[in-house]
Amino acid sequence: MKRKRLLFGCLFAAILVAVAVGLLELVLRMFMGHVLGPVETRWHVEEVAGGSVALTPGFRGTLTIAGRTCELTTNSDGLRGPELSPRQPGERRVLALGDSLTFGWGVEYDESFPARIGELLAEQRPPVTVLNGGVPGYGTREIALAMERAIPRLGPDVLLACIYVGNDFEDDVVVDKVVVDGFLMARHKAEVARDSWRVRLAMASRVWLLCERLWEKVLPASGISSILGRDAAEFDAAFAGWPTGEQRKDCLFMDAEPPGPVQRAAFDRVGSSLDRMVQLAGDRPLIVVVVPTQWHCMPATMKDLALAYYSGIGLDPAKIRPGRCIEEVGRLAEQRGLPWVDLREALFDPSACFIQGDGHLTIEGNRRAAAAITPFVVRALNGR
């Protein structure tokens, strides 16, 4: 009898513990993020051929930046924005390709600069539809891959290749991306996550993740962030010679004067991407849009702030000519007979045009970018 009571008591206690853990798991899922990133944008991308990703068709979610929450939705064509209507007679389409700044990370769809360009072209006849093909995390290589997929499917008449000098040079090095539990990762990071039973358990359970976070406070060097921070040897080799840590921030080292081997190799990769885009575009107008960082848009009154920032991340201001990388990308475009848009002048007010502490374009920044790009699009349309 005592043995039965003991077994019953143990079973009852186990049930209570399981229920308590289950309830705690539900509560933590409401208030605690995922180990790999923000839950609200989980599964917004999917893997495609070429070691790349694309927006997941029909995704519905939100994104919160600087205290502002925006809708993040894609249509059945895997583009940000509403469903495409059947093509009207004579309708012309403009496809904007790029990374999160083209996508409009931090603003609503109709506040992104592709949508704003569409508004500015609303009176054009025949009608013009502007498609937002921006995908967060893209570099120039992936813009070319996206162009290859989109041209047969969407039939654009004009193409915009939007190159962000803040991280596209770095994204071009990471040529193998995967989706792990709904989150975009470089393959080497994914392999680290999949090889660690602790990371896999933290992905599955918020209770375990809480335990990992508490453990990390006691022994940071053996915490889960340390595990996810390990780099594979081949990844390190790909970035050999690159600055490390803060010195790589915003790719400002790409403005080095004169450029070194790393910079020249990066520009060569951009040139190869442009060659592929030209080949894919055929007789379609292709416009290169060069998007600067906020540090490239500092007025003279803020020069001291910019110099202090360069010094703070370990760069020698005497060896940096701000905007040199922008001019080099423009030169690469000109060599291939492509018109290019330098957005520095349009965005020459970082406090108004860039989300502070984030670096993406504000509503005003997107509006100004659209105003600067639209005349180039009009000329391309009129030349068709």
Essential attributes:
384 residues; alpha/beta; Rossmann fold; two-stranded antiparallel ribbon; 11 strands; globular
Please provide a written account of the structure:
This protein is α/β, with parallel strands linked by helices. The chain has 2 domains: 30-53 and 179-238, no CATH class; 75-173 and 248-382, SGNH hydrolase (Rossmann fold), CATH 3.40.50. Helices cover 44% and strands 15% of the residues. It has 15 helices and 11 strands. The strands form 4 sheets. It has a 5-stranded parallel sheet with strand order 6-5-7-10-11, with helices on both faces. Helix 3 packs across helix 15 (363-382) and helix 11 (261-281) runs parallel beside helix 13. The radius of gyration is 24 Å and the shape is globular. The N and C termini lie far apart (92 Å). The mean pLDDT is 91.
Residue ranges: pLDDT <50 for 5 or more in a row?
A: none
CATH architecture of the largest domain: 3-Layer(aba) Sandwich
Counting DSSP H or I runs of 4 or more residues, the number of helices is 15
End-to-end separation = 92 Å
Element-level helix/strand string: HEEEEEHHEHEHEEHHHHHHEHHEHH
**What characterizes the major β-sheet?**
5 strands, parallel
**Domain count:** 2
Average pLDDT, to the nearest integer? 91
Helicity level: 40-55%
Overall outline = globular
Topology:
Layout: H1 2-31, E1 45-48, E2 52-55, E3 60-65, E4 68-73, E5 92-98, H2 100-103, H3 113-120, E6 128-134, H4 140-154, E7 158-164, H5 168-171, E8 177-180, E9 183-186, H6 187-195, H7 197-204, H8 206-218, H9 224-228, H10 233-238, H11 261-281, E10 286-291, H12 303-312, H13 324-335, E11 340-342, H14 350-353, H15 363-382
Parallel strand pairs: 5-6, 5-7, 7-10, 10-11
Antiparallel strand pairs: 1-2, 3-4, 8-9
Helix pairs in contact: 3-15, 4-11, 7-8, 11-13
